[in-house]
Amino acid sequence: MSNPGYFVSFEGGDGSGKTTQARLLGDWLGAATGREVVVTREPGGTTLGLEVRRLVLHSEDMDPRTEALLYAADRAHHVASLVRPALERGAVVVTDRYLDSSVAYQSGGRELSEQEVEDLSLWAVQGLLPDVTVLLDVDLETSRARMARDLDRLERVDDAFRQRTRDAYLRRAAADPARWAVVDARGTVEEIQAAVRAAVAERLAVPDAVEAAPRDAGA
């Protein structure tokens, strides 16, 4: 790891429980390591990011390339102003979505060029990748059941879009198992968190976290 801090990202489709699991992992890593913890999200992790989030969630006539460029702009600002400074001071950064979301959604779901989307994202963040990426994987039926509420523009997609996005995530995880941890997200919050902790502790090789990983997730 090139930074003194630790960088963990959460990925997955809508309804996978990323926001809850990211918060729980951040709480646990802070207690286990004694480090500062920054829990953030994309888009929306900064003031500028909140404006980008509003645009991408509620602009009904957005072209896929425009969407990809907005995400890249938000990510560049997010990393430069929040993520990288936190890592450089030794903090643990846990983000709900990062550049793999763009690759999965824009290339898988929107069917843009995967290489172009990835190159754009890597350029925006100057090559910064997470130490660990947790993919919370859920099937389409589970995803739909958890999303029985008012949906924003990005959530109002068909099952074919969702399946392409899920497939893109799984391909990326299979191609880089050292960085990715795939967790079955169909269980309870506590079961999922226990699996997340074990996977993250193993990959980060943080002594205190490894020792703490077998404890019950609700502890």
Describe the structure.
- There is one protein chain.
- By secondary structure, the chain is α/β, with parallel strands linked by helices.
- The chain contains nine helices and five strands, in the order E-H-E-H-H-E-H-H-E-H-H-E-H-H.
- It has helices at 18-33, 47-58, 64-88, 99-109, 114-124, 140-146, 159-175, 189-204, 207-212, and strands at 6-11, 37-41, 92-96, 132-137, 180-184.
- Helix 4 (99-109) runs antiparallel to helix 5 (114-124) and helix 4 crosses helix 7 (159-175).
- The radius of gyration is 17 Å and the shape is globular.
Which CATH C-level class is it? Alpha Beta
Number of strands: 5
Structural class: alpha/beta
Radius of gyration: 17 Å
Element order: H for helix, E for strand: EHEHHEHHEHHEHH
Task: Please tally the helical runs, counting DSSP H or I stretches of 4 or more residues.
Answer: 9
Question: How many structural domains can be distinguished in the coordinates?
Answer: 1
Query: Could you state the CATH homologous superfamily?
Result: P-loop containing nucleotide triphosphate hydrolases
- Strand percent estimate: 5-15%
CATH topology: Rossmann fold
Shape: globular
Largest sheet, order of strands side by side? 2-3-1-4-5
- Helix fraction, binned, reads 55-70%
In CATH, the architecture is 3-Layer(aba) Sandwich
Average the pLDDT over all residues and give the rounded result.
88
Protein name: Thymidylate kinase
Catalytic activity: dTMP + ATP = dTDP + ADP
Function: Phosphorylation of dTMP to form dTDP in both de novo and salvage pathways of dTTP synthesis.
Keywords: ATP-binding, Kinase, Nucleotide biosynthesis, Nucleotide-binding, Transferase
